[in-house]
Amino acid sequence: MDNMTFGKYIPMNSIIHRLDPRLKIVTLFIFLISVFFDAGFIGYGILGIYVLMCALLSKIKLSHILKAIKPMLFMMLFLMFFNIFLLKTGDLLLVLGPVKIYSGAILQSAYIFIRLVLIITLTTIMTSSTKPLELTLAIESLLSPLKKVHFPVHELAMMISIALRFIPDLLDEAKRIMKAQASRGVDFNEGTFTEKIKSIISLIIPLFISAFQRAEDLANAMESRNYNPEARRTRYQILTWNLSDTVALAVTLLVCFVVIVMSFLI
User: Fold this and answer.
1) Digit-coded pLDDT (tens) for 12-52
2) Is 130 left (phi over 0), alpha (psi -120 to 50) or beta?
3) Distances (CA, A) of 159 to 10, 140, 155, 200, 222
4) The pTM is what?
5) Fewer Cβ close by (within 10 Å): the C or N end of the chain?
6) Sign of the alpha-carbon torsion through 44, 247, 126, 230
7) Residue 141 phi, psi dihedral angles, 5° rounding
């Protein structure tokens, strides 16, 4: 549980922290589009340099980013394994009985690994450098044109904010339950597969009960304060777009444009 870093804000005085949260969301969206263009290793190298610069400017420790990547390693290896043994493109490199491994399969597996690492790294930088409240305001601001078609923008932004806010709390609650279960003789690391499933169930059930209790307490607190999602409200914190945001957006567009153009030239 200590390796889960998504949703944890790290207060620091950095350039990335001071950027407009709307810019961070738009930048992440543009990056997600460009990273899936097949621009070769040179293109992914350009995106990697861009992500590295964002990490350095955010002053977030490398260990924090690696903790975010570590839980996803199994999924990465799982996808790479299936691509290597199922794709039949490129030159034949190796024959292992009935299994044939091709160069195209290895190349695509490497691309998948690089894409996931870049996406997780940039997403971690965004969530670690942006407060949940700022993300809520940014999402609501970006989706504000949908209010004209009566889309519940405020309610959606509020749900996302609450979800991000309670991710660290639920992780802490899970650690507390695991310690309580371990003190009663439950072992989450050893035993047969059936015993491990039972151990996980003994963790999930109280965690769900705790999550529903937190949700009920929060709903009661909001109702007691006469919360009305349809009411007009003022903002204590006003989002402002500065020159640094314009420069950051221009750099992002330039990098992603170069990568997309390279994907068509290769």
Assistant:
1) 889 999 999 999 999 999 999 999 888 888 999 999 999 99
2) beta
3) 21, 11, 6, 27, 13
4) 0.76
5) C
6) negative
7) -70, -40
